[in-house]
Amino acid sequence: MRPSRPARLPVRDRGQVAVEYLGFLPLLLLVGLVGVQFGIAAYAAQQAGTGARAAARAASVDDLDSVPGPAAAGKAAMSGWIAGHSTVTESGGVATVSVDVPSLIPFLDMPTITRTATMPLPDAPQEDRP
């Protein structure tokens, strides 16, 4: 005796998986964009910290003629596209870098990331002291 054949699926069920996949695809794309957005924000925060440390280090050097200014040193220490979206300020050995993070997800405003670094300023020369 021959084994019986399985019944064929009805014609109306064909393509069901493709339709389910098309419904799930926007959610997969959104999850992927959120992951990339968090990666960009983390990278921008790391680069802002690097720029703040470089700017504070440049401000603490005795001979300012041999190094660029704090703002230029901070921007030079960061990646090109991050430096283009950032502002560097320095006052009294405290350097602050603010980075505007670009948004990949429409209608999502990313906050500005700010990092601060402090370096001791050089002592005043002996003849300037009272």
From TrEMBL:
- What InterPro entries does the database record attribute to this sequence? TadE-like_dom (IPR012495)
Q: Which Pfam families match?
A: TadE
Keywords, ordered alphabetically: Membrane, Transmembrane, Transmembrane helix
Instruction: Tell me which residues make up the TadE-like domain.
Output: 15-57
Q: Where are the transmembrane segments?
A: 21-45
Superkingdom in the source lineage: Bacteria
Q: What is this protein called?
A: Septum site-determining protein
Which species?
A: Streptomyces showdoensis
